[in-house]
Amino acid sequence: MGGREPTTGRRGSPAALQDPMIVGTMILVLALVGIVISYRANQGLPFVPSYEVRAAVPDAAELTVNGSEVRVGGARVGVVTGVEAMPPRGRTPAYAIVTMALETREERLPVDTRVTVRPRSILGAKYVDLRRGHARSGVPPGGLLPLSDARPVVELDEAFDVFDDATSRRVRSVVTDLGDGLAGRGADVNATLAAARRATAPLERVARAAVVPAAPLRRLVGGVASATAALAPAAPLLPGLLAAGGRTLGAVDAAAPATAQTLDALAPTEDALRVALTRARPVLADAAAIARGLRTATPLLRPVLARGRDALVAGTPVLRRVPSLADGFGRALDALRAAARDPAAAGSLRLLTATVRAVGGILSAWLPAQRHCNLMGVSFGNTTSALIGGGPDATELNGTIIVGEAGQDHPSAHVAERLHVNPVPHENDAECEAGNEPFAKGLAIGNPPGLQNGPVERTAPPPGVLERGRAAGFVP
Length: 476
What we know:
Transmembrane segments: 21-39
Largest sheet: 8 strands, mixed
Strand order of the largest sheet: 9-1-4-3-2-7-6-10
Helix content: 40-55%
Protein name: MlaD family protein
Shape: elongated
Region (Disordered): 439-476
Radius of gyration: 45 Å
Structural class: alpha/beta
Order of helices and strands: HEEEEEEEEEEHHHHHHHHHHEEH
Domain Mce/MlaD: 50-132
Organism: Paraconexibacter antarcticus
Oligomer: single chain
């Protein structure tokens, strides 16, 4: 009989692959092989030759066997296959020997290769960093890199251990506040980095100009050193200045909303200022031309000042004759008394008496302020100190910070909520209120409550002034 021969029993026939048992078994075997290869990947692929090297390190730093990587220049070249602790010997403290399985392309590693155990992430993972040396001889398979070629690494937790608890809390607070300040401001940070990138080219030009031998950098450093030496005698005044600055910053912090509005108004103010300066450039050019024209007259100022000095020297003897003038003034007063007895002068004398009484009332109010608060001495001292460049007490640093609020430069029917003004401060035997008012939040108009018994600066004539006054006859 004719017919086809059965194909199920033929070797290599596709019909054999249609058996579900055979197909499932093949898939299961392939899956197991993949799982084994994936599991063994950290230890190196199976059946792949490796180059084994050992290294002595001061601290294994929690390296894991068959889990920690070995890197050269940041590229993975092997894994750690063993960690062995070594006891101390003599002056050598305890250390560890790390066994590494490297790729064969790293064979004959130079004997002066540096070994460092570095953190892989902040979560605690570590890896071995190899920095190839320049020696011609290499480490044989199974060879050991000595402990002298290992470099210790300070861990992040060890670095923070140098701070005490209070400092650690403050660092944590600074990091938290910095994170809050940068949260949601990624676009602003990107814009800042872009602007900083544009500033690198000018900074590079400035740096190149600074390193030129002809640049006056040495004189600049010397000038800074001289300025620092000049500030050294004023060191005792710095604590008081810093304390006053702290109070000022506290006031600025309390006025944060007004400060924010002021900062928001700075941008249009800057634009207006730029326009004004652009328009004022011709005027400034004319002023510069006038100054250059006056430069020729500056040599004439010295003889003029010398003549003024000679005039003062010549006028001093004349002032000594003032007592004789006083005698004539006395005779004039006698004549005035005679005129006062005249009935026709009664009305004028009554007005003069009222004037004297008014002046007496003013002086009676002024005398306690001057005696207790040194009102005139401090006022004139600060004014002259600011005009002539300062004195040893640094009173020219006294000032007032005015924090504006949007809308206050226009007429309004309502008083600003944060307005502070004290038009008539109390200056008497009980208190010296001017300059010692405490900062108060919100609206504060008039005298603050309570007595403001703050410090009062005591002034004295400069050395030699009294002697010159006595020589001139002005001081008894």
